[in-house]
């Protein structure tokens, strides 16, 4: 049984995220390190979430602007927004603290990294080109699959001379398998690029050549799981659509080998763009830290009694 004091203490501490016993050997320095680590990792996590949610919206808008079908179906959007992207983002919270964490000075860098101009440039460098590649692969996949039916297929406007009910500029209901396969290819590529790009978000300024991403075992496990789940979703979705509609089954082998393999090489550019931006950001961060140390030393000297 609890005494009245113990029960009162337990109820009072319910909202607390951190609880300590009276004689616990806890050092304040360790608590400050942990709080700084979580704050930095939360910043990286929300930046990753914001950029890739924004990229999803821009991709959907862009393909509609050129009169193409949606690059992601409603189910695929929910799959990415609720499961895939948050799974990678949460794993960033488990990145270990950097050695010089307690030597970082509070500077005005937070005003720079939260400005609209900084975020816009970061998004364009780190994500925009990847979105363009996904949209191009989606469009070319639709075009190749359309041509296999011996129809006059326009690169953007589909089979304009096909008869029957038209849903997406010449693509009738019987083309839903083609659309599903193209959407699954684009979704898998998006997940593949995003998984490798997430490695650059595990550390604030250090590149992957200086900070081994595999130190974060949670991210390593989650990255492999995400790619595995997306691959499983690819085949289940494609087969389920073929079974529900019947008729001629559209397979992955119907898409040219070049269109399936060449986009995989873009992952090198994805890593390179992210690392180049981090190298630029590291120089800005180093300059801000030097300025903060100088200001701190100047103020300390002005108020020194010696």
Descriptive overview:
The structure is a single chain. The chain is mostly helical. The protein is 64% helix and 1% strand. It contains nine helices and two strands. The chain has a two-stranded antiparallel sheet with strand order 1-2. A hairpin with a 3-residue loop joins strand 1 (153-154) and strand 2 (158-159). Helix 3 runs antiparallel to helix 7 (217-245) and helix 6 packs antiparallel against helix 7.
Total helical segments: 9
Rg, Å, rounded: 25 Å
Mean pLDDT: 83
Q: Give the SSE string.
A: HHHHHEEHHHH
Helix % is 55-70%
Could you list some keywords that capture this structure?
306 residues; mainly alpha
Structure at a glance:
The chain is mainly alpha-helical.
SSE inventory with pairings:
Blueprint: H1 4-12, H2 28-65, H3 74-91, H4 109-113, H5 116-147, E1 153-154, E2 158-159, H6 176-197, H7 217-245, H8 257-261, H9 266-302
Antiparallel strand pairs: 1-2
């Amino acid at each position: 049984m609890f005494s009245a004091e113990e029960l009162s203490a337990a109820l009072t501490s319910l909202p607390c995220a951190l609880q300590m016993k009276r004689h616990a050997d806890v050092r304040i320095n360790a608590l400050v390190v942990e709080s700084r680590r979580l704050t930095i990792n939360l910043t990286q996590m929300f930046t990753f979430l914001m950029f890739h949610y924004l990229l999803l919206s821009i991709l959907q808008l862009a393909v509609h602007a050129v009169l193409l079908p949606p690059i992601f179906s409603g189910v695929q959007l929910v799959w990415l927004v609720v499961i895939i992207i948050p799974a990678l983002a949460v794993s960033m919270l488990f990145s270990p603290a950097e050695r010089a964490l307690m030597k970082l000075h509070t500077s005005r860098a937070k005003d720079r990294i939260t400005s609209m101009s900084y975020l816009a440039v970061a998004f364009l460098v780190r994500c925009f080109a990847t979105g363009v590649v996904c949209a191009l692969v989606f469009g070319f996949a639709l075009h190749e699959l359309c041509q296999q039916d011996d129809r006059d297929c326009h690169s953007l406007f589909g089979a304009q001379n096909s008869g029957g009910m038209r849903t997406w500029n010449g693509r009738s209901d019987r083309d839903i398998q083609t659309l599903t396969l193209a959407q699954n290819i684009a979704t898998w590529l998006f997940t593949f690029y995003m998984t490798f790009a997430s490695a650059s978000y595990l550390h604030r300024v250090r590149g992957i050549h200086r900070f081994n991403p595999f130190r974060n075992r949670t991210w390593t496990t989650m990255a492999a799981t995400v790619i595995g789940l997306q691959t499983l979703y690819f085949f289940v979705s494609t087969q389920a659509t073929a079974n529900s509609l019947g008729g001629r089954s559209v397979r992955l082998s119907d898409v040219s080998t070049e269109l399936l393999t060449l986009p995989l090489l873009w992952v090198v550019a994805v890593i390179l763009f992210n690392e180049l931006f981090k190298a630029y950001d590291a120089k800005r961060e180093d300059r801000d830290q030097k300025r903060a140390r100088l200001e701190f030393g100047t103020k300390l000297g002005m108020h020194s009694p010696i």
